[in-house]
Amino acid sequence: MAKEHNIKVDIKQIKITEVGPYEDTADLLVTTAMTKKEYKFPVINARNFLTGIGIEETKQQILTELQK
Fold it and tell me: By its UniProt entry, which SUPFAM superfamilies does this protein fall under (predicted)?
């Protein structure tokens, strides 16, 4: 998706428990995990990719954040 819109990204695939070291450098967290913790950056719930329902809306949320 980022490539299609010429947005350069550095993607890290990690567990939700491993977010800590990235808190000062991350711009966005896209996760299928439940989290109540507040972060300095936006958190997008991506469970829609698992269910197949509402994927386009989630993609748009991600794209909007990447374009900021």
Answer: PTS system IIB component-like (SSF52794)
Where is 31: in which H helix or E strand? strand 29-31
Inter-residue contact 22 to 37 (CB < 8 Å): no
- Residue 48 forms part of a structural domain: yes
Long-range contacts of 54-63 (CB under 8 A, 24+ apart): 59/1, 62/1, 62/28, 62/30, 63/1, 63/5
Measured distance CA(11)–CA(52) in Å, rounded: 22
pTM beyond 0.85, yes or no: yes
Task: Give the tokens for residue 48.
Answer: 């829609």
Task: Say if 30 falls within a structural domain.
Answer: yes
11-30 pLDDT, tens per residue?
A: 999 999 999 999 999 999 99
